[in-house]
Amino acid sequence: MNAYNFAYLDEQTKRMIRRAILKGLAIPGYQVPFASREMPMPYGWGTGGVQVTAATLTPDDTFKVIDQGADDTTNAVSIRKFFERTAGVATTEDTGKATIIQTRHRIPETPLTEGQILVYQVPIPEPLRFLEPSEVETRKMHSLEEYGLMHVKLYEDISKHGAIATSYAYPVKVEDRYVMDPSPIPKFDNPKLSNCPAIQLFGAGREQRIYALPPYTRVVSLDFEDHPFDPSKADHCCDLCGSGESYLDEVIVDDDGGRMFVCSDTDYCRARRAAGHMGAQGVPYEEGAA
Amino acid sequence: MISPLLNVRSVSKYYGTRIGCENVSFDLYPGEVMGIVGESGSGKSTLLNCLAGHLPPDSGEVFFDTRTNGPRDTLTMSEPERRMLGRTDWAFVHQHARDGLRMGVSAGGNVGERLMAVGARHYGNIRAQAVDWLGRVEIAADRMDDRPDAFSGGMQQRLQIARNLVTGPRLVFMDEPTGGLDVSVQARLLDLLRGLVREMGLSAIIVTHDLAVVRLLADRLMVMKDGHVVEAGLTDQVLDDPQHGYTQLLVSSVLQV
């Protein structure tokens, strides 16, 4: 094939990462330290997710990468190319056909199924980090289940903004035990974390942590009794496909205040348009057109 | 016969071959305020940190009369239990408010943290209690969303006290609570502390080098020198009729205005 070992990393490294993944799956939400490797891309570009993907990929897999929901942005394209070259696996943009999906900051709109693996890229795995700078202390807080501090952050949100203003990386509690950072996905996606049939793996390369949610794990977003969790999104429908359920990006289209709202999940939007749905500014779908 | 709230038996702490504090024993009864005075380096802060579980002593026992299980040795209990005590029945007021507060979190959040740490999850209730406690320490309700770094030293210290007392502790450790404040602010703080201690029936251990503080607040007094307790007794008795040479020196060193 080429000079690389299958999926770039050597077999011993993949073995080490798999052990961390298995431990993570055994203790849902627990951050497992692992010996993160230098990857041929900068930190912040998904080095953690790439290593997890490399360790889980088999030659029979079909691989999909999304970046903020899109299949065609720089990060997604470069990681997809990376595994096309180093693993020679089949790639797809179709969520339903993929067996491994590496994602940055979104969960696909199309419901995931058993047998699929969703790999998240995580910048800061520690949900308590910005409140408690000491790693020794945060580890102790996790081990003793002292999570009052997480609510102090939500309290501060309400006292400043009148509502919980945290809109992404919204902290969750896994199976009534570990408080976990779901990576910077919008809080709109938080409900999809819970009771998901697919395996969800989280990799943080720079911070050297892996954590995981096995299929059908209960994940609850933290809130107050009188300020319940609200998975909000822009109050519009997609201007291309007309969907009222998907998470939307706001796109500025000219200098005169013109804007449109489009699905952040490009595959979901394309599939809906191919099926004949059309939004307010949409045009009839043509195969191969952008 | 009332049983003591805190029963300290020959606590010793060494830093290598140097003595931190040696063979300290005393009882503290519910509602009683104990003062510990002595010069810098006499071991009073070491002793306080040993009692509050911040430092492990080298020998000795510290029995605390817990609400559910009666007297328990806090040095041998598990860490989760000790930390639970630390945010429910115990409170620790640091000399520097910055050590005891979260400077990046609003005053209301600082007071609410202990409530949330023991499971409060209703924003309205947490906020109402925070307003109530800020009022008790004379911080206006319109300052509750300001950060502590926008507060004066005296206000920070009062905020720290509110934050500590909000969960209704039974034992308060104070390490030089009036240190670094000017005298008029000190006087107000002492007045406030005296009121709270009497009103809530708190037991307290106050470490200070300021004899005026113990004269006002403490029922009993221990004088420490070089890691040893050299004299103990009722506050007025010790201050008015000091027996040990060092206590006599200490009392006579106070400047008269």
TrEMBL record, chain A:
Any GO BP: organic phosphonate catabolic process
Pfam family, one: PhnJ
Superkingdom of origin organism: Bacteria
Catalysed reaction equations from the record: alpha-D-ribose 1-methylphosphonate 5-phosphate + AH2 + S-adenosyl-L-methionine = alpha-D-ribose 1,2-cyclic phosphate 5-phosphate + methane + 5'-deoxyadenosine + L-methionine + A + H(+)
EC code: 4.7.1.1
Keyword hit for Translocase: no
Keywords, ordered alphabetically: 4Fe-4S, Iron, Iron-sulfur, Lyase, Metal-binding, S-adenosyl-L-methionine
MF-aspect GO terms: 4 iron, 4 sulfur cluster binding; alpha-D-ribose 1-methylphosphonate 5-phosphate C-P-lyase activity; metal ion binding
Similarity-based family: Belongs to the PhnJ family.
Role, per record: Catalyzes the breakage of the C-P bond in alpha-D-ribose 1-methylphosphonate 5-phosphate (PRPn) forming alpha-D-ribose.
The protein's name: Alpha-D-ribose 1-methylphosphonate 5-phosphate C-P lyase
Species, as recorded: Salinihabitans flavidus
From TrEMBL, chain B:
InterPro entries associated with the record: AAA+_ATPase, ABC_transporter-like_ATP-bd, ABC_transporter-like_CS, P-loop_NTPase, PhnK
Keyword terms, alphabetized: ATP-binding, Nucleotide-binding
ABC transporter domain sequence ranges: 6-251
Domain of life, source organism: Bacteria
Entry-linked CDD domains: ABC_NikE_OppD_transporters (cd03257)
Keyword Manganese carried by entry: no
Gene3D superfamilies assigned to the protein according to its UniProt record, in alphabetical order: P-loop containing nucleotide triphosphate hydrolases
GO MF annotation terms: ATP binding; ATP hydrolysis activity
GO biological process, alphabetically ordered: organic phosphonate catabolic process
Pfam family, one: ABC_tran
PANTHER family found in the cross-reference section: PHOSPHONATES UTILIZATION ATP-BINDING PROTEIN PHNK-RELATED
Protein name (Swiss-Prot/TrEMBL): Putative phosphonate transport system ATP-binding protein
Annotated organism of origin: Salinihabitans flavidus
